[in-house]
Each structure stands twice: as structure tokens, then as C-alpha cells.
Amino acid sequence: MGVLIVVEGLDGAGKRTLSAGLVGSWRAAGFRVATLAFPRYGQSVHADLGAEALRGRHGDTASSVDGMALLWALDRRDAADELRKLLADNDIVLLDRYVASNVAYTAARKHQGASGPAAEWVREIEFGRFGLPVPDLQLLLKVPVELAARRARDREAADVARDRDAYERDGDLQTRTGEVYDELVQQKWMSPWMVAGPDTDPEQLAAQISNQLRHGEGVTR
């Protein structure tokens, strides 16, 4: 059974770049690695409905915090069998976003923290009721909110098909979401966590994690 590792962070943090570097390093070291990104835009009706709602479609759907959280959760529920197969067939499965994203954004939208009722509700729905695999390690890519926002704007300018959604445009929400992520790290929510910065070398980080995996050690922050 493979190890489930998740990269988390704000919109525009650079998760895709870090993930690509980690995957390349692990594959070069001989690990069998699979990847999956959430939300699964273009593959999941729930993810696509959520994205469309955040861009002004489907009436007042986006204003329902719980409704949006359920769309993201249902996307992962529908991917559960695929995820379990990837874990059975690979040494490492790396996810770009997972349940902690839903916790962080849902709690932040409700002005709650990582120990509040919104966070517990998401945890119970996704890990309890839907039975999603629990991560072995979660990585928080922690960058200043201003840097993440600038990257999101630059990405929008470079790709006319990638306009920012309502979450990405809300700087206050991004700030509160970052604070919830910090609390999740401190609590070691659902797994050990590691924190990477904007200048983290993916090759060095991959080596640190893979060395611990080779020796059967617990992953520590």
C-alpha cells in the first residue's frame, strides 16, 4: 500500500510547481508515484458545478457555504475508488489539495477556526461518512497572502481561460484561510504536517521525505 501525501496552500501558493518537483525527484529515485488534483475540473460534475458557481452561475449556490463544501466533498467521494487503486499500485500518491482545503476554506468563510463546528462537520462527512483515505503526511506550502494573490493575478493575465474565482478575489478570505491552515498544522490535524516556504527546494524536500519513508520512520515536522 502506498503512502498518501497531500500538498495544501492558498490559491496561487505554487502547489502545482512544488508538486511537479517532488514527483520528478521521487521518480528519479525509483519510486512509483501517482498524482491527483482536487477539485477534478473537467472530470467531475460536482467540481465543475462548484467552479461555475464561483464565477456567478447557478443562482445563489456560491453563497451557501455548506452547499459549496458538499460539492467539493462529493467530488472526492466519487474519486475514492480511483484513489484507493492508486494507493494499491504505487509507492507514493501525491494530491494537490484534499480534505484540509475544504476544512480551511469552509471554516474561514464562516469566520471559525480549525477546532470549530464547520471543520468537524467537513471531517465527519469526508473521512467518516464517505470513508476517504486518511493522509500519511500533509505539506502546507506557506506563502504570504500578497504573493499568492499576485501569482493568481499573473496566472489570470497569462491565460484568458483561467479567470480568478470568487475565493481567489477575496483577499480577506485568503488571509483567514491561511490562519486556519496554520491551526491545522499546529494541531497535526489527521496526520503529521510539514511546512514549506516559497523558496523550498523540491529536490531537497523530496529527499527528506523519501529518506524517512525508506527507513520506516514517522514523518515529523
UniProtKB/TrEMBL annotation:
InterPro entries found in the cross-reference section: P-loop_NTPase (IPR027417), Thymidylate_kin-like_dom (IPR039430), Thymidylate_kin_CS (IPR018095), Thymidylate_kinase (IPR018094)
Keyword ATP-binding set for record: yes
Enzyme class: transferase
Family the entry assigns: Belongs to the thymidylate kinase family.
Keyword presence, rRNA processing: no
Known EC number: 2.7.4.9
Keyword annotations: ATP-binding, Kinase, Nucleotide biosynthesis, Nucleotide-binding, Transferase
Boundaries of every Thymidylate kinase-like domain copy: 7-190
GO molecular function terms listed in the Swiss-Prot or TrEMBL record: dTMP kinase activity
Top-rank taxon, per record: Bacteria
Pfam families xrefs: Thymidylate_kin
Organism classification: Bacteria, Bacillati, Actinomycetota, Actinomycetes, Mycobacteriales
Protein known as: Thymidylate kinase
PROSITE patterns: THYMIDYLATE_KINASE
Primary role: Phosphorylation of dTMP to form dTDP in both de novo and salvage pathways of dTTP synthesis.
Name of the coding gene: tmk
Catalytic activity of the protein: dTMP + ATP = dTDP + ADP
